[in-house]
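Title: Prediction job returns without error message
Component: structure pipeline
Severity: low
Priority: P3
Assignee: unassigned

Description:
Job completed but the reporter wants confirmation the result is attached to the right record. Sequence as submitted:
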Amino acid sequence: MNKDRFIEQVAPAAQANMREFGILASVTIAQAILESGWGNHAPGNNLFGIKGSGQQLVTQEFINGRWLQIVDGFCVYDSWYESIRDHSYFLTQNPRYANVLHELDYRLACQKLQQAGYATDPLYADKLIRIIEGSDLTRFDQIEGKGEYMMSCEDADKIIMFLSAAWTITEDAEARAEFHRLADELRKASGQL
């Protein structure tokens, strides 16, 4: 499949899931590219090599410093859209990937995926970063049309901490309500609400 065509096909789903789950579209697209060979090796429409039931396939795993071929079970999907959706759901439902969610720096997101054990390949993050940079995938991380901005959870929490300090020293009920409202707006802007 043509590389540009593959990106065109998966980018809308990756962007929709970025809005809903907080996983950068560039990272999702890069993973789909790397794991499926630009869509050319996605049996059962499984773009990400997500393990489960449905089909048995030969795969390579990096174990004890060596590449080994093993047979394992992999999920089957009706479409690439379903595969992308399940990938996002998989990351959000596994606590080990919590640091990847709402990470706005694609390099850090890739490194955090590797650190959390997404793949056994010791060069996984580097490969994703090269794909993102080589295909200019960060252009899909911009949310267009709605004028939305996604703040990092870390930054939002820091600002909320300052608001909390102000909230505790004031006795003005109106000011407290406003601090609370602002904290909720920060949580929304960072995808926490």
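Comment from assignee: result matches the submitted record. Residues 60 and 66 are 10 Å apart (CA to CA).
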